[in-house]
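Escalation from tier 1.

The customer reports that the assembly of four entities below gives different structure tokens on two consecutive runs. Tier 1 could not reproduce it. I'm attaching the input and our single run for tier 2 to review.
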Amino acid sequence: MIDERKQRILQAIIDDYISSAEPVGSRTLARKHDLGVSPATIRNEMADLEMLGYLEHIHTSSGRIPSSKGYRFYVDGLIPPKPVTDEERALIDRWYKARVKRIDEVFQETARLISQVTRNVSMVLAPQVSQAAFRCLQFLPLDEQRVIAVIMTDAGFVENKIVGMPSGATFEDFQRMAGVINHCLAGCTLRSIQGPALKQIRDEIREESLYEAALEVIQRALDSEKRERLYLGGTRHMLEQPEFHDVEKIKDILLMLEEEELIKDILHAHMGDGLEVTIGQENENRRIKDCSIITATYHLDGELLGTIAVLGPTRMEYAKAMSLLEYMNTNLADVIRRFHW
Amino acid sequence: MIDERKQRILQAIIDDYISSAEPVGSRTLARKHDLGVSPATIRNEMADLEMLGYLEHIHTSSGRIPSSKGYRFYVDGLIPPKPVTDEERALIDRWYKARVKRIDEVFQETARLISQVTRNVSMVLAPQVSQAAFRCLQFLPLDEQRVIAVIMTDAGFVENKIVGMPSGATFEDFQRMAGVINHCLAGCTLRSIQGPALKQIRDEIREESLYEAALEVIQRALDSEKRERLYLGGTRHMLEQPEFHDVEKIKDILLMLEEEELIKDILHAHMGDGLEVTIGQENENRRIKDCSIITATYHLDGELLGTIAVLGPTRMEYAKAMSLLEYMNTNLADVIRRFHW
DNA sequence: GTTAGCACTCTTGGACGGCGAGTGCTAACC
DNA sequence: GGTTAGCACTCGCCGTCCAAGAGTGCTAAC
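Tier 1 run:
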């Protein structure tokens, strides 16, 4: 149905278009790539490819540009592998070593790195603390009315909150409470803290006012970290794309990138097993129908932690972005492990 | 030198230009504002104002636009007061109540609020933890090799870090270390922790390996919070300004806004006592010579905490932005106090 | 001092035409 | 039958031209 020569021509067109952003015509294509056939033949093949839906025509007498279907075919089979170079690996290594001192900096810097190397917008969805397992809770005295609750999870996160003490309660009461909570919640994921565990805590604590306070502590441990963090990088690269040289279009994209919830939804929707590429029209959201998104999930010890992604115009360097994401998502596990115990 | 009628005309021109973004001509000005004189007279006055440097001419035969000097005169004297409305106050109040649960959210939300109300870019420089006073340090056991250090400061910040224990040291050693550190550093600002205090700690701790560990703890308490946090809001408003309808210009501004250090420097440079307005050419950085910055500092109990600012085109609504910042910087103190003890 | 009138300037937007790149089709070629 | 040269045709792009509109500066009259 689509023979080897057609494939070569399609690949040449897409490669050209990706690097030039100009519709490509038969003459120039024949000149640049040594395809061994004349422009006229290429024209015929192009007409066929268009008929089959792999190419598009802005108007009569302008070169062809790839359609979403064309990119899809390219990504699924034609794409020339473009592995991460040694320099890039070295850059990534140095970057993490120099800039990441605390675990929460990992994600911001990962976003920066991805956007720098791919020259596109990057998105990093950091692990949700709430799906980490509860490890231990401790209190520190602060003053007569307050204590600091320090909550640790298995994934290596430590959080602290200031909690008010109910009148009449002492710090010793809170220490007792910590013992009960630690006992009842050991190993629970934060998300799975539900009725039964709470009931057990209630039974063991007995005192109503203390139980209320315990609830508040648990509640606050949960709710402030319930929403996963999203980090963006390199939004400015969108400004450099010729397809967004129109202020209205760029506005549309930049405004969308400010809608954190929307982006998170998109990332969730695309969160597959490994590398997933969504091209142009394939996107459900019409505001990014001129863009492609490549997502990859990263894991630690078999557990899904989060997603990293690249967003760019459909005319993006898929090969580079894909191999980088693949590299980053294994690398990321190692970096996180360094902060882990 | 610049009589009352000239002032009225200058004010009318600036008000018009601020709301329309179009150069204003004598005829339209006469029609819109009831100045009691004919266009010809206005033309004469305009010519005078231009001679004096308050107005500019893009080319012969186009209307006038205010110069930086013109805006300066306007801001210093002509500006019609535009107090924060009751609705705006209510909005601000509701916003803080609904969205701010933790102190570090105050600044991000303040930035959002300012940009929303002024429809311009906002910048918020959060207080530096390192100029807060050290309050207390405590350790919690984590595992055989590590402890969690929890550091509290007077300004209401609590930070935690994971610290490795030197081999041979026990958790009890660390507790003793905490006692020494708390004793020696009580009341010091984090920034002022210098040689003498450290020497005292060394003398009291005695053991070299423990002292090294103590140094690491102090070091990490300092360095991760040394750099103050910057929050931006509403960069998209720049996209809506007609003067930045050119992609190159918008790129210039947006790229600059991504340079955190640069922005911080600018804010520091403009950090005056109260409200400070820097207009167009008055800016040292030529990349914002088409912009104005209004900065205001906020305090708590007499101590300077940080800066809030609005960045917009020179043609911005100074009156509104100024009164809002003035309101916000008193309000902010109250909001912070809520998290304070 | 103020104003009406007028000549002049400059931008904006639409119309027009030539140029260049590209297509589609046909007829000839291997 | 696939391949190619040739040719007519189509558009977008760009520069020019022209008229309309907004505004200025100057002069002379009030």
